[in-house]
Amino acid sequence: MIKSRTPPQFDIHALRNGDRDEFARVVEIFSGQIYRLALKMLQNQQDAEDILQESFIKAYKALPKFEGRSSLSTWLYRIATNEALMFLRRKKPHQISVEQPSEDDEDRTPLEIVDWCCLPEGELMSEEARSILERNAAALPETLRVVFLLRDIEGLSTLETSDVLNISESAVKTRLSRARLRLRESLSKYYGERVRAARERGDL
Question: CATH no. for residue 135?
Answer without folding.
Answer: 1.10.10.10
